[in-house]
Amino acid sequence: MTVSRRKTARSRAGRPQRLWPALLLCALAAAACRTPVPVPAGSPLEPLSVRVAPTPEAEDRLAARLAGAALVDDLERVEAALSELEAVDGGDSRNPNLLALAHDLRNATAPDDAGYRRATRALLRTRDISADPALEARLERAVADDPLRLANERVLDDYHALFARTFNAVSEPVGRSLLTGFTVAPVALASSAAHYLAQSYREDALSTRERQALVLRQRYLAEDPDGQHSERVSRQVASARAELHQTHRDRLHRQARRALRADQYERARVLANLALDFAPADPALVALVGEAEQAAAAERARLQRSLEATPGGDNEASLALARDLLTPGADLEANLRALAASEGSEAFSDEIVFVRALVESETGSEERAWQRLRGLARRSPERSNVVRHAANLVDSSQQNPYEAFREIRSRERARFARWLVFDRFADGPRYTHIPKPIAYLVDLPAVAQTLVQLPVRLLVYPFRPNLDFHVSTAAAAQRYLDRAPRGSRAEEVRTWLLDYHEERENWLAVERLLRDLRDEGGELAWEDIHTRAADQALRISLDQPRRDLQVSMLKRLSQEYYDTDAGRVAGGRVREITRTTTPQSIRITAQYLRENPRLAGPDGLGLRPSLIDGQTENGELHPDGVTLAGGRVLEFAFLAESGDEADAPTRLPRRVSSERLARVVSLLEETALRNERVDRDDKQAANAPRDLYLERARLGLTDRVDTRPTARSTYTYQGVRERYGMVRSRESVLPFDLVVQGSLRDLSLGAFPRWRGPKETPDAFLYR
Amino acid sequence: MRRHAPIRVALATSALVVAVSGCLAAKKREATYTPSENVLEIVSVLRRHVPDDTYRFAPATDFSGRNVYRATLLRLESAERLHAEALAAGHFAGVVAMAKGRALERLRAYPLAAERYRDAAEAEPQLAETALASAEVCEALAAAVSLGIDLRDPLPEDTAPAYPLDVDATLEALDERVARLELLLRRVVGTHYAPVAREEIERTDRTRARYFVALRGVLRDGNVRAVGELQRLVSRHPESKNIRLHTLELADFFASLAGEYAAAHPPESLRFDPPKFRELVDSASHLYQRVAGQDGTPEKLVAARRLEAFLAFTLKVDRDRFTP
């Protein structure tokens, strides 16, 4: 027993050593035996099929008669043709969908939309059209496009959204309490109720969905003023319009108030006047207009006062100084000394300081000048007129860019510190539309939790490069350097800006900043930065989606950075693009062709069946499929010799006849449209250059190749399986999601149902 | 307890199978249309929208978001390519030509529409009467719209002709066009050609307004005339689907006048006249607000943003000389 076990163990231990050579041999043999995948010889296309024109059947002729009668509004002939068609069809038609389509055409002659919808509803009810999902989908859409029904849906959505919000306001705190203990339940519920009320306080008189309903009801009245429901709808419209006016009035009133608080008097007046259009003679608005006008008048008076000048008080020295201030090359220092020594000079002490600062500034003592002006600006403006001029110079970001840089930097540092401590409450409470103390009170529990989370933020901050609190400081620094590139503070500001850009790896900006210094003989690891800037420029260029712009960026890059690897890569890329770019690049993937075999078959492309049969021995289409490459050229992508789909395909361009191209694009478009109707996940994205090319190809107008970059499409027709895989995600049938939520802030764990509110319609943004 | 384990496993497995099969990509059902079915479908969609009042309401779109008349035309072309052999017998020739005519006239291709109608009349005697009548209307429309100037193409293929400076002759031609269209409108009232004629009258009025806006720097009191023409456009077409666009154009004109005035007389200069400027500000902002208050249209967003931008522009003027 023991011996045999040992033997087995020994033999097991020796097995790997023996196995390796065997595996290697197998691999070599497999590699030697593997047949390379051939590129198909000859044309990948079958000859264009020539089909015999069939003789039209009786039902085809009747269908033509029906269509003709419908187009000329001959309703009697429409009915007659339809009856005959029904008699001929007799339930054993070779055109299984013809009768349903004929009924739909008859319905389309209804005098109005409501009549058409009624008839379509009846058609859907009485006939089984499930064999034609495209028709079924179209008819269902037509029935659904009823303005009154849609209006009611929007109103119901509004109630639904309100219910969802109320439900969630209760379920979430209760669900949390179930796991963390009921002792905190009252606090959690109270907090949730406070947020609920704060949100409700902000709501407009008429919600977005109610505004959608209003427009739909107005559409109904406009289309059918004497309709069955006109009277009721008119009342609804009148009431909603009053609420909409109230909404507009409130919004404009709020904006006007904000403008007034920001000392924008004219803007406040205009907005308040606009609000008066919606609520004529509204006392609050009238008062606001008056307030704005009064504030503007007061401002004008202040401006007027600045123009006042009190005569007298001047002496000879002051007049001489005034004269010499306007005389180029005058000895202002001597004038200042004379004025200081003159009788009554104490009245001019501020003016002397101001002029001395100007002299110092012009003679290069920038620092001393600003120091002097800052001192003067701190004095009372009542003391002399010149104080406000000094204050204006000191406060001006244009005149005093260094001070602006310092101020913005300290402000942004403070903002960063506030963010570290308070996170999303850094700029105050969330609800700005309610009184501040209440807003703070509502947010108090969340603020407390945020404070606890401070260490996490300290840890996480360095890994969040998108958080940038110093954008404005960088702009102010750049402004200073633009105005005073050799100013006394230039080095300090430049160093800050270099650090800022380096931290963000913006090497192009670093290079720009250092270029001037390099020209002056400085050497700051120039080669390294130059290389990094080139790499960054290359990345940006390669991300550019438009080929023409990309080529121009790459060309420039290859010239400016010819001495770097990136420059050489850019040059190579330009050559490659020029060689390989086709005027069009509309791709039909192999999977799309497999999912839509008619398109690949003799009615469409006429592709040799062996190329998409999954057998690689006779050549196989690469997943890239077939590309409409512009003009009448189709480019076929075949599997590379290795047979590996991941390898670049072998491309084979082929010029086809305009007839074949017209047939391909016609069927391609029909296929895409029908797929879109049958399967809502198979939506065809809008692409104008694609449509333009298809249209021209259908009409046989592609011989003149359109080479404009903006006419080039890179659209891809992809199979549904390629887009979504084997399994598509589906929305739960339950009206709520079950949420399990853990929070690091308060170390809590909760489980609760969250009611899913109704989704907004895609055009909701037009109603806010 | 262990006795139930297989049952639980079976239940869990079947639930999983049901769940996964529910999520699997639904296999597409494809109904391939015969030529007759294809044409009937296209004609059905078109026929439903033939009577649409495209002067008052935006033209309908099909499910892909394309203008329904344009989509019809493209799909008819596709059907002709796909079923060339089946349609060669000609039993649908009249219908296809008639349908193309109906689509083309809504795309302002009147001469082509008239040609298709004549083809339809020739191919299908039962369509002849209506088709020939439609051909006549289209020819009348084509003749009318060829009179006088048209809206300018800002990016012409070749050199664009300059606007004529002979105002009287230009106006005479445009008046003649409108007169012919109004005459035609009286003839076709109650048919689907009435909105088409109204659209052409509106386009003529718009052309006329644009003409005076373009010539305002050349003509005496050009700005007054341009404002008058833009206001005329707004007041003559209150029911049009384009009324918001016309109002925006007028608002833009007032806004550009305000900008030009501030440029010609900078607010700090001695010739700046605050009341004049304020008149322009009030007119532009009221018109913008009027459009911005109309829900459900892209013009609403355009107007709201332009109002915001315009008020931002007035902020530059506000503090200095422009205070009430």
Overall mean pLDDT score of chain A?
Answer: 85
Describe the largest sheet of chain B.
Answer: none
How many beta-strand segments of chain A?
7
Which structural class fits the helix and strand makeup of chain A? mainly alpha
List segments of chain B where confidence is low: pLDDT < 50 over at least 5 consecutive residues.
17-28
Number of domains of chain B: 3
- Helical fraction of chain A equals 55-70%
Radius of gyration of chain B: 29 Å
Largest sheet of chain A: 5 strands, mixed
Low-confidence stretches of chain A: 1-15
Shape of chain B: elongated
List its salient traits.
heterodimer, A: 768 residues, mainly alpha, 5-stranded mixed β-sheet, two-stranded antiparallel ribbon, disordered N terminus, B: mainly alpha, 3 domains, 0% strand
Itemize the secondary structure elements and their pairings.
The complex is a heterodimer of chains A (768) and B (324).
Chain A: H1 2-33, H2 58-71, H3 75-89, H4 98-108, H5 113-126, H6 133-144, H7 147-180, H8 185-201, H9 208-223, H10 230-261, H11 265-278, H12 283-305, H13 316-325, H14 332-341, H15 349-362, H16 366-377, H17 386-395, H18 401-422, H19 436-452, H20 454-460, H21 471-483, H22 490-503, H23 507-519, H24 526-543, H25 547-560, H26 565-580, E1 586-588, H27 590-595, H28 597-600, E2 621-628, E3 633-638, E4 650-655, H29 658-678, H30 688-698, E5 716-717, H31 720-724, E6 736-743, E7 748-755
Parallel strand pairs in A: 1-5
Antiparallel strand pairs in A: 1-2, 2-3, 3-4, 6-7
Helix pairs in contact in A: 2-3, 2-4, 3-4, 4-5, 5-6, 6-29, 7-8, 7-9, 8-19, 9-10, 10-11, 10-12, 11-12, 13-14, 14-15, 15-16, 16-17, 18-21, 21-22, 22-23, 23-24, 24-25, 24-26, 25-26, 29-30
Chain B: H1 5-23, H2 35-49, H3 68-82, H4 84-87, H5 93-105, H6 110-123, H7 125-145, H8 167-188, H9 193-214, H10 222-236, H11 243-264, H12 274-292, H13 298-318
Helix pairs in contact in B: 2-3, 2-5, 3-5, 5-6, 5-7, 6-7, 7-8, 8-9, 9-10, 10-11, 11-12, 11-13, 12-13
